[in-house]
Design goal:
Elements (H helix, E strand, L loop, with lengths): L8 H12 L8 E8 L2 E8 L2 H7 L4 E7 L2 H4 L4 H13 L8 E6 L9 H5 L19 E7 L1 H4 L3 H12 L3 E10 L8 E5 L18 H4 L3 E11 H12 L15 E2 L4 H20 L5 H7 L2
Parallel strand pairs: 4-5, 4-6, 6-8
Antiparallel strand pairs: 1-2, 2-3, 3-7, 7-8, 8-9
Helix pairs in contact: 4-10
Length: 292
């Protein structure tokens, strides 16, 4: 039986509906469609252990912002997406200092969203004497186990013990179950995350239990499992699933051919969205001047 990989709660809900039927009630889950800055938002709230078992995600709030309009180059879309992110993320943030950790491997483009976002993040913790009205923000490029010999959780936990933030914000690339969401949605959550879970490489969890403070996550799906893509294409064509397909492509992942350009743009979008959520008195023009 195929286990379809996805980091997105909205997709997990849809997959559950596909298997259970539209009329079946999804226990322990509350979901609705919303808008932010005129952009579609899917809100999924996992309420309890029953909902966690159904969707395979820990209890909490998951907001999936549709940013496909970025690639249609709609007028003013950059500012709309940035403000929508800030609008959704702001209510999840407690008052006080924040540690932002960009997770991923900067040498591997589909995994580089987190580290590259830090280039567009306003770091203010060391500037409190000259910028007293700004929320203190520290940034950490956490690296990956294969290049550092350290678990991401060890990096982040060590930094959090030193910085003592009121909250930790994690930025990471995610896995989707379908091609249409690649680089076209942003998921915001108050549940933390398990690095690598979407590609079957589970690491130590980063959440309130392991870090001792609220942990928010911001992620963009950049890869999809190749076997899932193949099955979807067969289904769309009306062909029967090939028996030999099972298990093939489980270690292969598909990413857009324009991933370099998209990661560059998404890193700025995510960084600016975080900045407006963390420093709500600023405008996009202020960020352009401060980060130039």
């Amino acid at each position: 039986m195929l286990t379809i990989r996805t980091d997105l709660a909205a997709e997990a809900r849809d997959l559950w509906r596909e298997s259970a039927g539209e009329t079946t009630r999804l226990p322990g889950v509350r979901a609705r469609d919303e808008e932010a800055q005129g952009l579609p938002v899917a809100r999924v709230e996992i309420l309890d252990a029953e909902g966690e078992r159904a969707l395979g995600k820990p209890p909490g709030v998951y907001l999936t912002l549709d940013v496909a309009a970025l690639w249609r180059r709609e007028e003013g879309i950059f500012a709309r997406v940035v403000r929508a992110m800030a609008e959704l993320l702001g209510p999840l943030l407690p008052e006080g200092p924040v540690l932002a950790a960009g997770l991923g491997n900067p040498a591997m483009t589909p995994d580089a969203l987190g580290p590259r976002t830090l280039d567009h993040l306003l770091i203010t913790r060391h500037l409190q004497e000259v910028l007293p009205g700004f929320r203190p923000v520290a940034g950490l490029g956490a690296g990956v186990l294969g290049t550092t010999g350290l678990e991401v959780a060890e990096w982040v936990r060590g930094a959090a013990e030193h910085v003592k933030p009121a909250a930790v914000v994690l930025i990471d690339a995610l896995a989707s179950r379908g091609l249409d969401r690649l680089c076209s949605t942003v998921q915001l959550s108050d549940t933390g995350l398990i690095p690598g879970s979407g590609v079957g490489n589970h690491r130590m969890a980063l959440n309130r239990e392991t870090l001792g403070v609220p942990v928010l996550s911001v992620g963009v799906p950049t890869v999809v499992d190749a076997e899932t893509v193949a099955r979807d294409l067969l289904a769309d064509s009306g062909a029967e699933e090939a028996p030999l397909l099972a298990g093939r492509g489980r270690r292969l992942f598909v990413t857009p051919d324009s991933i370099d350009a998209k990661i560059r743009e998404l890193a700025k979008v995510v960084g600016y969205g975080l900045n407006l959520a963390l420093q709500p008195d600023l405008e996009i023009e202020d960020l352009d001047a401060l980060l130039a």
